[in-house]
Automatic annotation (TrEMBL):
InterPro entries: AB_hydrolase_fold. This is Alpha/beta-hydrolase. It comes from Aspergillus steynii IBT 23096. Gene3D superfamilies: alpha/beta hydrolase.
Length: 365
């Protein structure tokens, strides 16, 4: 797999910011932007940066610099408004499980085509474990950064790329302290993504069943016990399971609106997982590794659900779904510009319950 951050590297020189590494709960955790915090900022927002598969935390340093420098410039521009409270921003990166300083099994990071028969189990457990690490580090980070409580970590945002994008979806869904998230070339529908990858990899569990693919779920390549776990955490598998249907490998057709009984079951779940959250989903129109269309049916259903005319409009969920039409499985300058803008606007809006209805923005760039 080509490093999806290479395109960004070749487009511009990364903006540097200060960094300091702490060993927290046995995880080497790098914090960007501490030295640049405004002295008057008693509250600090934290942006968690989750790197791609086969990469390390170091690859997220350029994004950290871009976001922090933009926000600090925003604070300078509005410095004349002395009544406005000042919230500083730091970014935090660490190696995902089985990556970098935490590597224990190189094959576990590879796909079926590269000879890893447990690709589905390995990838889901790694990025789901990383999402849990974010929650763990959230608990302890303030005591390392501000041991005399001179500042307070008041908000958490997440940005993930590829494998980190899958993890970011899990953070958004299952970590209540995350108020906003940016998913770059990630997918909210793991079953659909893996089914497509199994088809393209010509796995025996796919090609030797009739019709093809009918025995994939429950096979050694995707055990039924893995599917049980996926249905507990994956956005599409979790929410769509309440529509009374088994996971659909194709997801080629539009998903129906829940009936009233199903809405009564789904509403508390959506309240817990998504209410008042802001999401930016960035995809590559030419991405073959994580194709947009593998998550499209679920995203369309979600947008119809949370949008101004949706049955969960009062959940005040913001979802921006943006496709860089000429991008493959890569992070482009256009994507980072959107991410920087989104994070700035999210910080400007602040955290808390919104009285505005849900909103949806779709765009191609």
């Amino acid at each position: 797999m080509t490093d999806p951050l290479n395109t960004l590297d070749s487009a511009s020189s990364p903006l540097s910011v200060s960094r300091k590494t702490y060993p927290i709960a046995g995880i080497l955790t790098t914090v960007f932007g501490l030295e640049e915090l405004p002295p008057q900022a008693t509250e600090v927002a934290c942006l968690w940066l989750l790197h791609p598969r086969l990469a390390t935390q170091e690859r997220m340093s350029g994004i950290a610099g871009a976001v922090i420098r933009d926000w600090n410039q925003r604070l300078k521009d509005r410095a004349a408004d002395t009544k406005a409270p000042v919230t500083g921003l730091v970014a935090v990166a660490f190696d995902q499980r089985n990556h970098g300083s935490r590597l224990v099994d190189p094959l576990g990071n590879e796909a079926w085509r590269q000879g890893n028969p447990r690709h589905a189990q390995d990838m889901f457990s790694i990025f789901q474990g990383t999402a849990r690490d974010v929650s763990l580090l959230m608990d302890y980070l303030p005591s390392f950064l501000f041991p005399t409580s001179e500042r307070r970590v008041s908000d958490h945002l997440v940005l993930g790329v590829s494998l980190g994008g899958h993890a970011a979806w899990s953070c958004i869904m299952h970590e209540p302290r995350v108020s906003a998230g940016v998913v770059i070339i990630g997918c909210p529908d793991y079953v659909s993504l893996m089914a497509d990858r199994a088809r393209l990899s010509k796995l025996a569990s796919w090609t030797e069943s009739n019709p093809q693919g009918s025995q994939f779920l429950g096979s050694e390549a995707f055990p039924s016990t893995l599917l049980d776990v996926v249905c507990n955490y994956d956005p599409a598998a979790l929410l769509l399971s309440y529509l009374g249907s088994t996971p659909d490998l194709s997801r080629n057709e539009s998903l129906r609106e829940p009936n009233e009984e199903e809405k009564q079951i789904l509403r508390p779940l959506l309240d817990r997982c998504l209410a008042n959250k802001k999401i930016l989903n960035l995809s590559g129109g030419l991405d073959k590794l994580v194709p947009y269309h593998r998550g499209e049916a679920f995203l369309t259903w979600l947008k119809q659900t949370i949008g101004p005319n949706g049955w969960f409009a009062d959940g005040a969920v913001t979802l921006e779904d943006i496709i860089d039409e000429n991008a493959a499985h890569e992070v482009t300058p256009k994507m980072i510009a959107e991410a920087v803008r989104f994070i700035r606007e999210s910080l400007d809006a602040g955290k808390g319950d919104s009285k505005s209805p849900g909103s949806v923005r779709e765009a191609k760039i």
